[in-house]
Design goal:
- The complex is a heterodimer of chains A (167) and B (476).
- Chain A is an alpha+beta fold and 167 residues long.
- Chain A is built from one helix and twelve strands.
- Chain A has two domains: 43 residues; 110 residues, Immunoglobulin-like, CATH 2.60.40.
- In chain A, 21% of the residues lie in helices and 36% in strands.
- In chain A, strand 7 and strand 8 form a beta hairpin.
- Chain A is elongated.
- Chain A starts with 6 loop residues before the first helix and ends with a strand.
- Chain B is mostly beta strands and 476 residues long.
- Chain B has two domains: 298 residues, no CATH class; 130 residues, Immunoglobulin-like (Sandwich), CATH 2.60.40.
- Helices cover 10% and strands 41% of the residues of chain B.
- Chain B contains six helices and 40 strands.
- In chain B, the strands form six sheets. In chain B, strands 4, 8, 9, 12, 13, 16, 18, 22, 26 and 30 form a ten-stranded parallel beta sheet that branches.
- Chain B is rod-shaped, with a radius of gyration of 45 Å.
- In chain B, 41% of the residues are buried.
- Classes of the chains: A alpha+beta (167), B mainly beta (476).
- At the A-B interface, helix 1, strand 11 and strand 12 of A face strand 4, strand 18, strand 22, strand 26 and strand 30 of B.
Chain lengths: 167, 476
């Protein structure tokens, strides 16, 4: 004969069972999610094109310079740019004849404070929003991270030391 | 070590009064045994110094001791016409008090009626195996002459019930001595409630008539209590009541589902319960000093709530994440390694230790001898080598020859050659329109270096001048 069991205990067991199942599914889901994420995280993801990039060349100012890089490309940049609030008027340009695409990253005392999307040949980026506002004569380092077009093979990083313009 | 012994009776933990015409149908487990805790269980009563008449147990009893007690562990009182039912003869043999037991197949009503003067007035007779009270005959009529003038308080809702026992536990005499009649079933839907008559100073001394109704869905918590049960301390009378509940009494010394300590009377009541406790447990009543008749208990008892142990491996997950923090994603697509790379012999021994980020290293012969037939240069040692030497850069080698116009023309490009690898052959692939005939040619080998870990191109490109000697049969 089957032993009579408590309905209260059965209800509770059902609730606990559903909860346990949900927790188990959640744990398994998190595990799989983490594994998938960890696998995907190490893989290369192509940087997106810079939405604010413009075709052509920036306005030529006194501070604008064209710096040839040994890898066979030329970076146009204002080496003493003006910073208004958190916007840096860097006027960085990827010249038309270059054989690379590049990203711009700005470091202040080894801390990344601004980064751009990909600039294709013949494009320039006038302003770059920073995480912090730069004061006059603040030193910062511009990293030009260059890529071989389409393959995204590295073409090295050109590091340019700059200083914001004095008021 | 604080070693505790769990002592449990299927119906009562300790009986010093009278229990008659009652039965227990419970499963008493010993699953949780942490810190050497021991279990001693009996099917009906753990310790009897009172009277037991016409009671039986068909409980499943598990105990740590060798041999089980199907009915009573310690008996110093009277035990008349009581027995227990075991699943089979084999199960019966394992019991220490097997003389009081019967195998299930042998438990016939006629046999019990003849040999045990069993009162079958209220028992199901049709089905011999069932052995349960008949609902329609299982009813206790109280003696109205005891308190003829006392008004009956009818309870038909949870709110009324909760208010009443709140009054009892606050020591209000009109509530503690009341004559209660339950007129409807009550369902608490998992609500935790305290005991009625929570301690010796606040007992219930009145009359509670369940009217054949059931109170279910409540949880009794013994936290901070000396004893717990629906009726904690009973000095009155309870009759015709069914309960269905969970009792959580892990920290409570004396636990029972229906009544923790009975000094009054209980008639025609049933408890269907799940009990989680660790010390002294009676599934229906903890200690009985009064009288209990025609009552039954069914359910199960465990040491404590079962943990979902199978989830434990997932607790390791955060540690795995902490011990293996994610490295930043790769910044570049790595250049594919050359298909013909061969690992250097000495690399297999040193396992290619790399320790200098600013060092590159390569080896090429001064003269590259190429077979004119297939334009392939082969060597037993290497044609291009990336020896370890503590460097940290892989490289791609590109061979340029100078054409008649004095311009460099690419005739070969390797794949990536990692540190500690070399290639033993390469095949020249001059652009269309250029034919390489036998002879010596001036050439240069250009190296583009890529960081072994990050794939970043090192800005240290190097050119090495060399001579290409094209001859029949290649290197001899």
């Amino acid at each position: 004969m089957k032993r009579e069991t408590s309905i209260t205990a059965t209800r509770r067991a059902r609730k606990l069972g559903i909860l346990t199942c949900l927790i188990t599914i959640l744990c398994i889901g998190i595990s799989f999610g983490y594994i998938r994420y960890a696998q995907g995280y190490h893989q290369f993801r192509a940087p997106e094109h810079e939405a604010a990039a413009e075709k052509g060349m920036p306005e030529l100012t006194e501070t604008y310079q064209e710096l040839p890089v040994k890898e066979g490309y030329v970076v146009g940049i204002s080496t003493t740019p003006i910073c208004e609030g958190k916007t840096l008027h860097l006027n960085v340009a990827n010249k038309d004849g270059n054989k690379v695409w590049f990203l711009v990253r700005i470091y202040k005392k080894d801390k990344l404070i601004a980064k751009s999307g990909m600039l294709y040949q013949g494009e320039y980026l006038a302003d770059l929003p920073c995480d912090v506002s730069l004061q006059a004569e603040d030193e910062f380092l511009v990293h030009i991270v260059a890529y071989e077009p389409e393959t995204y093979h590295s073409e090295g990083i050109a590091r340019i030391s700059c200083k914001t313009a004095s008021k | 070590m604080n070693r505790k012994i769990k002592m449990e009776g299927g119906f009562a933990y300790r009986n010093k009064g009278i229990i008659e015409n009652c039965y227990a149908d419970v499963k008493i487990g010993t699953a949780i045994r942490i810190n050497g805790n021991k279990h001693e269980n009996a099917g009906l009563v753990y310790e009897n110094s009172g009277e037991l008449h016409q009671c039986f147990s068909r409980s499943i009893v598990r105990t740590w001791k060798k041999g089980r007690d199907g009915l009573i562990v310690t008996n110093q009182g009277r035990c008349q016409h009581c027995f227990f039912i075991a699943k089979s003869d084999k199960a019966l043999e394992k019991c220490r008090d097997k003389e009081l037991g019967f195998a299930k197949a042998n438990t016939k009503p006629e046999f019990l009626e003849e040999n045990f003067q069993w009162d079958f007035a209220a028992f199901e007779r049709e089905s011999a195996e069932k052995m349960q009270f008949q609902k329609e005959l299982w009813h206790y009529e109280p003696d109205e002459s005891a308190s003829p003038d006392q008004a009956t308080v009818e309870i038909n809702s949870r709110e009324q019930f909760l208010k009443w026992f709140d009054d009892v536990n606050h020591g209000k005499p009109e509530a503690a001595n009341a004559k209660i009649l339950l007129t409807d079933d009550l369902d608490f839907h998992g609500k935790t409630i305290p005991a009625i008559g929570c301690d010796k100073q606040h007992p219930f001394s009145g009359t509670f008539d369940g009217g054949g109704h059931k109170i279910r869905g409540f949880v009794l918590s013994g936290k901070g209590m000396a004893e717990t049960g629906l009726f904690g301390y009973l000095k009155g009378t309870v009759q015709n009541l069914s309960i269905d509940c969970i009792v959580k009494g892990a920290s409570c010394p004396l636990v029972a589902a229906f009544c923790a300590v009975n000094e009054g009377e209980i008639h025609c009541c049933e408890a269907i319960c799940a009990v989680y406790a660790k010390r002294y447990i009676g599934m229906f009543v903890g200690e009985n000093h009064g009288k209990i008749g025609r009552c039954r208990v069914s359910g199960k008892s465990r040491g404590s709530l079962i943990w979902p142990w199978f989830l434990l491996p997932f607790l390791i997950l955060p540690f795995i994440v902490l011990l293996n923090p994610l490295e930043p994603p790769k910044e570049y697509v790595p250049v594919m390694a050359d298909a013909s790379i061969v690992q250097n012999e000495n690399e297999k021994k040193t396992r290619g230790k790399r320790n200098n980020d600013n060092k590159v290293s390569f080896e090429v012969p001064e003269t590259l001898i190429v077979d004119a037939a297939n334009l392939t240069a082969e060597s037993d040692t290497y044609v291009i080598n990336n020896p370890n030497r503590g460097a940290n850069y892989d490289f791609v080698a590109t061979l340029y020859m100078t054409n008649s116009n004095g311009k460099d023309v690419e005739v070969y490009r390797s794949g990536r050659i990692p540190i500690g690898y070399h290639i033993k052959s390469l095949t020249l692939d001059p652009p269309s329109g250029i034919t390489l005939s036998e002879g010596d040619y001036k050439a240069k080998l250009a190296f583009s270096f890529y960081h072994h870990d990050t794939g970043e191109k090192g800005m240290v490109d190097s050119d090495v001048p060399l001579t290409i000697k094209i001859q029949q049969g290649g290197e001899k």
